[in-house]
Task: inverse folding
């Protein structure tokens, strides 16, 4: 039977009903989910009960698990699901804690992992604990925006090389955060500005809050163009805002979606569980890789 799909937003995204993600295998439902992922860029599954093992197993269907500690160490380390959380054993993080500041930095429009040697294809995010108010996640389609972008803005971005630096986005929140070893350890990374989806043939602007300049332009001019492009892509008619409920799973195409978290009362816990998978040649990686 085909997936039960309804639109999430007029330009992108879909709600998928009637699927228990614990039952998805390479031969059962995954081919349909993957096809919907390529077409819609973001998929929402409600009322899921994924253990960390279930979450990880589902992610492996999309590609290699992104294991940042192992990448940083240069050796094999056991994979762990990422908890994006202000919750601690004793309550919640102090708002000035570096981990709390890093959560604030996630409230900038960004694409995950553009600073890694291999960028992300997908993020599979599940809500485990939600606050009483706030804490939404917003998503914007850079595929739809790129298709609509006026030529005077689009032309200088076409065939451009955009440089990404993790500490660049973190410096907007705190110099101390930008200098934190977990942030500053990642070197600058260049990617081509447009990612072509090899399945649909559609292009998307590949950009992030980590983007700090465009090759061949000065730092200030490059940043100004990046800021204009992100502003265009995140106009309200390209944005979907998701109000989380416990058990929601939302997965999205990192090649074609910008996202950001929204503030919430930091005295309340919020726990999101995330697994990213790395892009491969089959996902069109060569269209953005600098040879």
Result:
């Amino acid at each position: 039977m085909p997936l039960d799909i309804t639109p999430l937003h007029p330009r992108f995204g879909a709600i998928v009903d009637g699927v228990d993600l614990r039952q998805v295998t390479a031969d059962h439902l995954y081919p349909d989910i993957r096809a919907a992922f390529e077409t819609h860029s973001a998929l929402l599954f409600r009322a899921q009960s994924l253990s960390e093992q279930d979450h990880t197993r589902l992610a492996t269907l999309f590609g290699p698990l992104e294991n940042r500690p192992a990448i940083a160490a240069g050796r094999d380390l056991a994979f762990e699901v990422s908890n994006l959380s202000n919750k601690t054993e004793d309550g919640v993080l102090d708002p000035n804690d570096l981990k709390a500041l890093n959560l604030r930095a996630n409230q900038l429009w960004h694409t995950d992992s553009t600073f890694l040697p291999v960028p992300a294809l997908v993020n599979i995010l599940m809500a485990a604990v939600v606050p009483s108010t706030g804490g939404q996640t917003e998503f914007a389609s850079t595929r739809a925006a790129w298709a609509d972008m006026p030529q005077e803005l689009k032309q200088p971005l076409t065939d451009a090389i955009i440089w990404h630096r993790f500490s660049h986005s973190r410096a907007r929140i705190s110099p101390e955060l930008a200098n934190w070893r977990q942030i500053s350890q990642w070197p600058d990374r260049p990617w081509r500005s447009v990612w072509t989806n090899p399945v649909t043939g559609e292009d998307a602007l590949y950009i992030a809050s980590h983007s700090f300049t465009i090759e061949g332009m000065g730092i200030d001019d490059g940043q100004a163009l990046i800021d204009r492009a992100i502003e265009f892509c995140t106009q309200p008619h390209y944005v979907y805002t998701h109000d989380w409920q416990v058990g929601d799973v939302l997965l999205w195409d990192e090649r074609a979606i910008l996202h950001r978290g929204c503030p919430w009362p930091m005295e309340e816990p919020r726990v999101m569980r995330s697994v990213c998978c790395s892009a491969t040649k089959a996902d069109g990686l060569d269209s953005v890789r600098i040879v």
Q: What stands out?
A: The chain has a mean pLDDT of 97. The longest strand covers residues 120-129. The first helix runs from residue 30 to 40.
